[in-house]
Amino acid sequence: MKLDPASYxxxxxxAECLATAEEMEAALDRMATELTARLADKDPLVLCVMTxxxxxxxxxxxxxxxxxxxxYIHASRYQGxxxxxxxxxxxxxxxxIRGEHILILDDILDEGLTLKQIIDAxxxxxxxxxxxxxxxxxxxxxACSADVVGIxxxxxxxxxxxxxxxxxFRNARGLFAVADCDR
Length: 183
Ligand SMILES: O=P(O)(O)OC[C@H]1O[C@H](OP(=O)(O)OP(=O)(O)O)[C@H](O)[C@@H]1O
Ligand code: HPA
Description:
The two termini are 16 Å apart. The protein has 5 helices and 9 strands; from the N terminus they run H-E-H-E-H-E-E-H-E-H-E-E-E-E. By secondary structure, the protein is of the alpha/beta class.
């Protein structure tokens, strides 16, 4: 569904900035340092979890100054809504995973159900090792944890840096929480 320009502007005007672009860049720097320590000698296969992880992947990879390869994996459970449902698999690169040191990159760990299913899938497909990294983690319980986290924020509905609100705002420069009335 499309958001009309007036509604788009109203959502943006009511949203609260939780982290500026500068703070998100600092989070990406910290992630790069931690991932370099873990993976620089592993020739990892990086899996970008589509679609939300496109921004963190694009911003993080140039900060990783070592040998790696990039592929993607696509499982989603929000479908443009603000509450998650059943996981839908769109692409699972099973044949490429066996024997590889896998780095799963996602934009957010919320309930953790998406990451848990992706971890289970990569184990089932024979990954040699698994490292997980998320740009944002909500302060709440999760079905699984991530090894590397960029920034931790309160449990509100977020957009920006890859995170969408009704399929919009992935390009927002900063991390924003929508107002309760927009949730
Ligand atoms: O921890 P969870 O509660 O499972 O939520 C996290 C997942 O939700 C979002 O994906 P979404 O299904 O919205 O697809 P998208 O990447 O296309 O936005 C996000 O990109 C994570 O993959
Ligand atoms: O807070 C969120 N915002 C956008 N996408 C999401 N997917 C899980 N949680 C969120």
